[in-house]
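Box 3.1. Reading complex inputs
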Amino acid sequence: MHHPLTIIIVGGGTAGWMTAAALSQLIEKNICTITLVESAEIGTVGVGEATLPQMKDFNDFIGINEADMMQSTNATFKLGIQFVGWGKQSSSYIHPFGKFGESIAGVDFHQVWSRLNLVAKVKNIEAYSYAIQASYQNRFEFPVNDKNYINSTYSYAYHFDASLYAQYLRKFSEERDVRRVEGKIHSVKRSNATGLIESIELESGLSIKGDFFVDCSGFRSLLLREALGAEFEDWSHWLPCDRAAALPSKRIEKIPPYTRSTAKEAGWQWRIPLQHRTGNGYVFSSDFISEDKAVESLLNDVPDALAVPRLLKFKAGRYRQSWIKNCVAIGLSSGFLEPLESTSIYLIQVAIFNLLKCFPNKQVENELIAEYGRLMDLEYERIRDFLILHYHLNERDDNDLWRYCRSMKIPDSLKEKIAIYKSRGYIDQYRYGLFSLPSWIAVFNGQGLTQNLVDPFAFNISDDTAIERLNEIEKRISERVKSMPTHDEFLADYCPAKL
Amino acid sequence: MSFPINKIVVVGKDADAWIAALMLKRAFSNFTSAIQIHLVELNSELIKHDFFSVLPGHQLLHKVLGANESGLLAAAKGLYSFGQRFSNWSGSASAFIHGYDKFGADLKGVDFLHYWLKASESGLNVPLEDFSLGVVAAKANRFVTASDISSNFSEASYGYNLSATPYVQTIAKVALKLGVIHHRGTIASVEVDEKKIKCIRLANDDVVDGDFFIDASGSDGILIKHLEEKNYDDWSNWFGCNHQLIGSAKPLSPRPAFSQISAFAPGWIGIFPLLDRTAVSISYNSSIANHEEVLDQATAISGLRLESPTLTEISYGARKQQWIGNCVAVGDAAARMDSIDAQHLHLLHVGLSLLRALFPNNNNYLVEAKIYNEKMNNYIIGMRDYQLAHYYLNRRFGDPFWDMCRKVNIPESLQRRLELFKKRGLVALTEEDVFQVADWQSLFIGHGLRPAHYSPLVNQIPDHELITRFQQILSYISKEVNCLPMFETQVEINLL
């Protein structure tokens, strides 16, 4: 007879409940039991969260009804992120969830576009992105699958209230027999012989034994760092922001289908539109501005605040190993990267999927831990480089933060990506990890890094053909976008908030 | 804009040189300015028995070259090949086919292999390959058609076996017709200026200059050797076959849909069906047996009599940098790979594709060369490890050559991959892996590895349901296979 694996999840924020929900389908199959320990006294970090299109895969995987989830979390749709003041103070661009144009005679669109740029005046590359054009017009509808249609060239994500999402998943999980225990953790008991975690001891005196532990305790990293002594890899010299002040405000009149990130003197400010309110926050570096000044600046820039600012502290980086012995850390307990590209929930999700791929037995298998580590390293490093790019590529002169970031030594991996893009628009495509071609193009272009030269094979296409194709794509996009409902109309019809 | 490269010179011979020249000619076919593609052809080393056994990926190369598949195949006396049958690699254990298809269907996000492992543990006695439409069809001498591939259940594909001389001649004809400028001769000297090749002087005193050079001259690297220092990784401690006999036998009837790779005491015998003959290659270690003994044994085992086979000495290794200055070494000049597992021309293909993606657009190639070399090295490692695993995992205990192969100190990249699979049945793919999950599964399972554990998640499917699923898959495959055209018929329609 098969004995189920006893899984203990420590912490019940977004990470804890996402993990519980994803694994809960294994309970009735007798593969595992799940106990989640959380304390109502300990707050969670989730403020209002912006997500990436992969979020839909996660919800589909666990079997969540999209409209129901969106109604319950006051969610809105998201087609990308608008970056204001990044690069130059005057610049503004959208990083879309979708393609720019389409390849022409086997040559990538951005190469043809850049090549035309050398000989003629062409429109901003944003004119050729369906997701961007829909964003600017505050419109939304679902993409179609048929690749022949221009409205198949994008995907979408959500903005939602992360605390409500966690609550939603809690209900979902408890219905599937995840056991929830209320309580604070007093200590962690490890085996003298093997070093494995045997149990967690609660302040109430309750001892909870398990075979496998998932640390979702947030910044505290209660199991991974405190109990198992994981070593932190500090990335704050590349990503110097170490504070965030969060502040909700009234809902926006016409809800935009995108997140906005506005660069400021010592960091950047987010705006995440929900159906009932708007999430705002100033992510800043305490080396370059005082907390008081930052809060003041946030209050100045956010009209119609609904509460007082809440301050969070963090450090960019991650633990060298996020799975040690019989414990894996998921979420903030495994590392932190600022929410500039909405990657926090994605990192939770990918950790869960990798855990399922390397699902543990009762014995510790080092080969499995190594493979999990390899997969997570790729994710973390790729996101890290992409975030650094936003800071590094700037011409701002209003504060030392920007001067520092412009001249700092960046990772070699990123340096190479920038050099080869600049010299020929080459962007590596990879199997694992986030941020494919359009993401890099959006940020490079949006922040003023133009290609000096193009892929030579772009010269296989004549000027006339190229211009004709570009015009055709632009026309198809603008005509189709016009017929879309507004984001507000779509929300009201599909998933009005249960207020 | 004026393009800094106006004249590209390919130097080399045979498939590497002609394919490189044709690929470049076509790549620049609609270019705004006229780019000259020169080919300095060195003496051919092809012999009449030579053949190429290539993977399904080669179809893509043919597309890039603008080839009409049936026409090229017929001209090259070639045949489709749906896989390779490895026999006698594991003592008395049965043979297996490395088919170009996946296995079964994944359930609940868990790879089919894990369900098979569980079922096998509880007594299922059906080989993994019987859950692959491509393999079952190949064994039944059927031809998998596009409609089955589009069924989502199968990804069956075919590579080719090609007769080398007519294949290269056909490609050369097209290249010349499209305007590749052809020189013939031997190289007297190579002139280098500031770490770049400036020109080549031929024995007849002709001088060919150029902006960019492709070294397709084989492992000598007749151009790149002038730019390199200590640039070679020798692999002879990993690969033990140091001689190869190549010959031809009568065509098989009916023509099999797969190649046959049989291990025997001194090495292995490869049998590659072609349209008008059967190509046979015998790789062996000469310290175990001399070539007469080898030939006698091979004839006895295969039942094929070879007409005047040719003997060559072989060695293995790779250049550490394939792109130096204005010169890129492709094909055999990049690495001397083992010939096992249909990897002929594959490295050439990978190199040319990468070169196309990174083809220089100015006179400074440093960034391109760095990325090219990094990626090529990763590609080469993946291919080499896959080949090496065949030897390392043999179970011919008591055969000195094969005992030696098992004792080889394998590279860490392969070691890690093996350990993860042995422990858990997982295949860790890198970004540049040429072989996909199903290829590695076929290799590992075929050679008898059985992971210590399968994923606990397979227990999501109750045993009785699993049995039903397996039966459904098997009956689906056998039904489908019976409806497929015979391989021989398809050959007659397309190629004769």
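In summary: The interface with chain B takes residues 2, 5, 25-26, 29-31, 61, 105, 118-119, 356-361, 365, 367-368, 370-371, 374, 416, 419-420, 423-424, 426, 428, 430-432, 453-457, 459-462 of chain A (CB under 8 Å).
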